[in-house]
Amino acid sequence: MKKIGFIGAGNMATAIIKGIIARNGNADNINVFDVSEEKQNLMKELGAAVCGSCADVTAKSDIIVLAVKPQHYAEAIESLKDAATEDKTFVSIAAGISISYVQNALGRACPVVRVMPNTPLLLGKGASALCPSENISDEDKKIVEELFAGSGVCEYITEEHMNEIISVNGSSPAYIYLFAKAMADYAESCGIDYDKAMNLICATLEGSAAMLRESGDSADVLIEKVSSKGGTTIAALNKLREHGFTEAIRDAMQACTDRAEELGR
């Protein structure tokens, strides 16, 4: 069994590690380094091997997940690159960090998989976009896919769209939370219990997602089916359009993409 190393043990790394443990029944193939003693202790409780440095994790692992923030990538890769060899595969889960950035920083053409996961991965309901370099082995490609598919759905995306996909699945949970909060805040302002309203909103979001996925109808058709002529839904949709709802979403997603490009420079 190949050894999986994690540089950083934040929420996303922990979710992936817990997914591995759920599939394997143990953490015997997991190596971790994090500067936080609290996170080190959590990893020990999970049964993972806690290493003393980024280089130590790299030396002891076959596939290394770079689970640090974009602004810490240069420092992390600099500290481990002497332990990297071209038979090791690196996984980048940070916004804006390209395959070439990782390979150039390592100073060698290691296989790299660029991944954009999202936080629902913590509940096993994640959505991850993957882009592997051409020189990756079929075995490592499958292992990396399983790291994320075990906690949600995966789609392969070409690298030219990996910055744009961040706005689609990486950052988008925050837009949905904001939308849900605005709806619940309105309900509360009308005298409806906030928690009861949020419970109904969450069920509606889940049901709407199921309709998009399973009904066989397009989003436009589903909108039309809810919108009776002269009814309440049309009144709401007209107000959203009046306020430029679609344009606001597009602008927000473009701002997300622009920031990803800035982070990768």
Describe this structure in words.
With 265 residues, the chain is α/β, with parallel strands linked by helices. Helix content is 55%, strand content 13%. It has helices spanning 11-24, 37-46, 54-60, 73-80, 99-106, 138-149, 162-170, 172-189, 194-214, 219-226, 232-242, 245-263, and strands at residues 4-7, 30-33, 49-50, 63-66, 89-92, 112-116, 126-132, 152-156. It has an eight-stranded mixed sheet with strand order 3-2-1-4-5-6-7-8, with helices on both faces. It is elongated. The two termini are 36 Å apart. The mean pLDDT is 95.
Summarize the structure.
The protein is of the alpha/beta class and 265 residues long. It has helices at residues 11-24, 37-46, 54-60, 73-80, 99-106, 138-149, 162-170, 172-189, 194-214, 219-226, 232-242, 245-263; strands at residues 4-7, 30-33, 49-50, 63-66, 89-92, 112-116, 126-132, 152-156. α3 (54-60) crosses α4 (73-80), α7 crosses α12 and α8 (172-189) crosses α9 (194-214).
In terms of topology, how is this protein built?
Layout: E1 4-7, H1 11-24, E2 30-33, H2 37-46, E3 49-50, H3 54-60, E4 63-66, H4 73-80, E5 89-92, H5 99-106, E6 112-116, E7 126-132, H6 138-149, E8 152-156, H7 162-170, H8 172-189, H9 194-214, H10 219-226, H11 232-242, H12 245-263
Parallel strand pairs: 1-2, 1-4, 2-3, 4-5, 5-6, 7-8
Antiparallel strand pairs: 6-7
Helix pairs in contact: 3-4, 7-12, 8-9
